[in-house]
Amino acid sequence: MPLIQISIGEGRTDEQVRTLVTELTDATVRAIGARREAVSVIVTPVPATHWANGGTTIADKRAAREAAASS
Catalytic residue at 2? Predict the structure, then answer.
């Protein structure tokens, strides 16, 4: 019974999440021969203020890009 857990930045539409879930399920069925109904997917949206790369949050990186673009 495969369980796929994925974290993504918040802000995706319900349709985008549905597509992601479908594609992940399809890939799992193809890759390991799992029964489709046995594949579970958990999508966890993460706020940009709670996700960081290199010690800087995604929110801060976006803000810096926007500030640089408006300069």
Answer: yes
